[in-house]
Protein 1
Amino acid sequence: MKKKAIILITLIFAMTLTACFSENAKEEEIDGALKVLNKAEAAEEEAVQNIPEEDLHNTYIEPKTMGYDNASPEDCTVNASFTVKDFNLEEGKISFSVYEEEIYDAVEVSLMQIGDTLNINGRELVVESIQDVNGDLKVNGGIEEGGAELLAGSGGTYRARSLEDAPAYLETGRSTLPLSEALTISDGYKDASSPKTATFEELEDYLDGLDGASDSFNYLTTTIQVAGGKVINITRRG
């Protein structure tokens, strides 16, 4: 399309310099210009159509997952969100939403090309441009331009960046699990340097002491540790 516009502008400019041409001559020049444009456009379309199928890159790139089983998870530590209301003290259980950080295999990312599809920040992004900025990657201009960003991580990985300039997470499910009698809680919401602690026996008093914003636990600062199918630790950073 850009080539077509350039050819048209050039031909029109040349025609305006020839002021002595007759009206018929001008019409002939316009007809000639249109024929040239049509040929150029047809050639461009033919070139695109004749690209070998094997040269069209269309790889699907998605985050690695830890394979968390919502109903019967293996021993693990996950980022979680929940509120005080999600504790069921009568049954000794807690319900929580599980979040996983968007982490990508560095090998897959290194092979990413124009035309690939990147699953990132909860959407599928067709790759139109890739810019390397000191090892980090801006896809389609980066977040500020409606694209995405991948930050070089450790252990042969890339991490997705969020709008808040923090690691990006996706909700992967919701679990309801029993609380272990060996449960421990470390809560640095009010004072990260001296977190409040509680045990299973102290849980009711601990929950009663939470009010306002402190009764909501966010996945960016909260982790739940599961062992033997039970919750054995809840940690909230300040």
Protein 2
Amino acid sequence: MNKLPDFFRTDPGSVIFDLEDSSCILYKTKSQNHLNEAYILKKNVLIFVLNGEKEVCSGHQSFQLCKGDAVLVQKGLYILSDAHPHQSTFESILFFLEDSIIEEFIHSQQLEIRCTSEYSPFFPLNTTRKLFTFLDSIVQYLNSTAPYPPQLFKLKIFELLHLLAADERNHGFTAFIDRLKKKPVEDITVFMENNYTQPLTIEEYAALTGRSLSTFKREFKQLYQQSPAQWIRKRRLKKARELLIKSGMNVTETCSSVGYENISHFIKLFKSEYGMTPKKLLEKKCSILD
């Protein structure tokens, strides 16, 4: 999976500027609702909403961002994102930051780091009119046809980080950015219960919990006495059965809701587990209700 998801680069509403260290700046505009954008965040990202509304979710955590709002998100999360235009346009600018640029900023500013035991992968940011005037100047650079050296945008990112760190209302910002390179190891049981319906590979589940693939498989087997693939299949099918019986979802909607992208594969697995197809279960449910 690429550091920056492919759909960002192929989206006609996106303007991207790549820096030499693999950091990048992404300016996005949308004229329609853009729902269920899903990706693994492999860089730390600063998100600023210039117009409209945006919801960013990971697990059970969710942030609703309106015009003028901002959040810093730590890498290593599975992100679901919705964007909603206001008065015909959604507009945002995102700064995807490699650890190296953050470390260089901390070192160059000689910042005092005050450690905290609190942990969250999200850091809501206070913003000012001055800050958004600064962001508007970056958008003008990005939309210009003139070539600009990557070093210019690197300096702009340093200036942005300095503006955020200098705002006393962003208490704990420097401690948060210092901790970005130290993704904590997630509790496997909590993470899997929150994310088993997401269409992820075993390798991606391992990375998102902060483990190598071999360590993840070993610890998973110790916890559940079965492989990750076996547990995920059974857990998804159990959830699918619950949805078919208790919700008004059809087979296609249920398939998607529990993390399967191929409906034929889903039907085959379901029949193997429960001795009947999802459609047959729905018909049985209807006959009982009648």
Protein 3
Amino acid sequence: MKKSIMRATLPTPPGQTLVKQLDLLKKCGFDGIQLGVQGAGELTLRTPDADVTALAKACRDAGVEPHALYGGITFFREDEADRKRGLEDAHHVLEIAALIGARDILIHPGQLTSAIPYDACWKYALDGLRALKEKAESTHLRLGLENVWNKFLMSPLEWQRLLAEVDSTAVGIWFDVGNVVVFGYPEQWLRILGRKPIVGIHIKDFKRGAGEHFGTVDGFVPLFHGSVNWPAVMRQLVEIGFDAYLVTEVSLGAQPLPDSLRELSRQLDVLVGYANK
């Protein structure tokens, strides 16, 4: 398994850019990075193609593989015209991924609300994934819908049904370990889902509330300070045959960045050690 980090967790103080942080990432032991298509920064929907390819080259020159993307795609939009614009943006994200040479894309589908009910979210998710799957298949990309706190797809059995209806090897789940903990056990999800639908993994921890009741976002804690049974999770990843990037989505805290990255890399070494036992 390889070590990677989500771009959103890296601080960007004034005068600092991602490109300036790449050598440090490599020195701290990170093999890859999940880049983000955001509203501002080094990668947006409006970034010129030449700048996109230059960013990818800078990553690879530093020895940090830009293997995945997140951002720029949402499906749960109440207005039909807005959904159409969203799909146009989504197609552009796939084009950006192809320019970068990334293989995997995380999709946060949006938020279920009183105005966008569960059955509508199901339809919008299916419509969006079906609209993108042909392009993903033809460009050898994989799309991973993330399990997030959006009141949607609350069990691995629902995920299996949705993915069966999409019916594409290019579409699966971006599995976030910490997001499951508030209402389930990630090692059980991994066993039920198996390797095939797993597009990517987010590594983070979560501490359940008293009596194992639902928690809040304050429950997201540093690795090994929460309720995730990491030995069981890592054993299950091995059993299903997962051997790709472990992408951290962890707050780096208040320490100087080099110290924080070295500690996070060390924690990933511990996780890989569990997998090797």
